[in-house]
Amino acid sequence: MEWINWISKLMIPALIVFIPLYAAYFRKVPVYESFVEGAKEGFPTAVQIIPHLVGMMVAVSIFRETGAMQFYLKLFQPLLSLIHFPEESFPLALLRPISGAGSLAFVESIFRAHGPDSYLGRLVSTMQGSTDTTLYVLTVYFGAVGIRRSLYAVKVGLLADMAGFVASWLIVTMVFGS
Amino acid sequence: MVNHIWLWMILSGVVAAVVQGRVDLVTQAALTGAKEAVAVCIGLISILVFWMGMMRIAQDAGLLEKLARLLRPAVRFLFPSVPPDHPAMGYILSNISANMFGLGNAATPMGIKAMEELQKLNPDPKTASPAMCTLLALNTSGFTLIPTTIIGLRMKYGSADPAEIIGSTLLATMISSLVAILLDRWFRSRYFRSRAE
Question: pTM for the whole thing?
């Protein structure tokens, strides 16, 4: 698996060299002018995202900081013990789709309390890596082009997240044992 | 759906704060949330400016078309409504490959460029098109070969084998991506049926 790590590290420098070199050498593209022309769009795009992201992150922040999330976690507890889902990792299932930084902080807290090589440590690692922050991705990608009505995209994203968490739980239990 | 989730998060937060007799929590949380969001966008500026510049060079050199031609069958299957020679295809493919190799920073600008191109094909600019939903489904399910952030974090906390979760994560993300693609197909056909009626 070492080679994947290498590809990941070398990819960006390779792209930064390859793209302009190929363009200038084979296609006679005025690379600097081209770069500036494209880069111009970056700033307005970032600004365009601001209202969407502020709206979403304010709601997420209120939900988390006021203890509303804790309340829902408690509500689900009986159901979880019924199906033997490891309780300590459940907050991540709720946090992962709504906050990237928040879920990463939660993973760290599990690492601190149980160690990264414990069953829980491996489970939260897999859950965290199995999916992306659905609400953030939705807000940024759709916000950047001014989409307000997202059709069924949220449902698809959240259901796929759930599938990823259940899969993580089953896979980690099978591969590493509980 | 987003409207409901949004309202539900705010309402349950306010109720929770009132029950505890700490309404001030709401104000505090709202302000920190807004601050964090703006900080994220400021962070995005440099990434977007840089990669959109690079992407323009790639586009002017015809590199994106090349990439799109290379993997055409797979993308045609996922995005039947996008003309195969449309520039959106090149951006979609570069977005997917950047995600796969864990280049999160580069993947976002490429995904946004793909969205911009898809927006040009969209009859209603305020409502997402089915192709946009498919692209989003691919991105929210976060298909990646190597979860670099998590491996780094495991290293920091002294794991004996930080990379041992690569296999389980890959399998889990494949399942969530597969579910995302299948659900997207199903909702898409339902959406077209409801529009035809």
Answer: 0.88
